[in-house]
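Thread: quick sanity check before group meeting

JM: Hey all, I'm pulling together slides for Thursday and realized we never actually wrote out the predicted structure for the chain we discussed last week. Dropping the sequence here so it's in one place. If anyone has concerns about the input, flag it before I start.
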Amino acid sequence: MKLSGEELERYARHIVLQEVGGPGQGKLKDAKVLVIGAGGLGAPVLLYLAAAGIGTLGVIDDDDVTLSNLQRQIIHASSRIGRPKTDSAAQTLNDLNPHVNVIGHKMRLVASNALDIIGRYDIVADGSDNFATRFLVSDACYLAKKTLVAAAVGQFDGQLSTFKPYLKDAQGVPYPTYRCLHPEAPPPGLVPACEEAGIVGALTGIIGSIQAMEVMKEILGIGDSLAGRLFMYDALLARAYVTTLPWNPDNLLNGRNATIRDLSHHS
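JM (edit): ok, ran it. Output follows.
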């Protein structure tokens, strides 16, 4: 995809990178990325992907901006309290990079709309804050054959992985799905929401920025994918490490005896 003179200047620091260059920047411009949630994780993901020149950015969120969001959701502003997060995010992204087509979906992702919405994009970045949505996004991405970069945070730690369970690795083994990491959601109340447990705002910026980097790597086809691996970060210990995330042949999505064929099991 051809870049204008203004775009060549805007993305100059990308274009001088051997791993990106003009062709890579063209791939970014041609890409369509859906971000689930315009919150703590979605904010840095959206900002860095827009700055990087992703051509089409979709953001789905049914919430409005509140004062308590602003401690970590840096895409919003005090003057926008009460406005839909999708509108607030679009305003910031359009100011940052007018070359990006921002599509806001002010709604909740549910079983009845997930495949339609996800099917419009090339890759999905999940920054949702609840297990029900994470399982729905994972299942829908598998059925739609879309790569998923999913992240989660809590208090002082975060984790991140890339899921493409519709593909196999070099040994012919399917890549793991989110259900290989979490076979099922924990009982209600076991994992408190950030409203109850608290969270450091900068942590969402760290994990969200890494999430944006992994999305770009998948689009550009560079580096080592996090498919089949899990990145974990502990802010208090200032420690990060990557561990193997193996395929579970008993998982219900892409296991040997998989039973999930559609999204009807999601309420």
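AS: nice. The CA atoms of residues 9 and 15 lie 9 Å apart. The chain has a mean pLDDT of 94.
JM: adding both to the slides.
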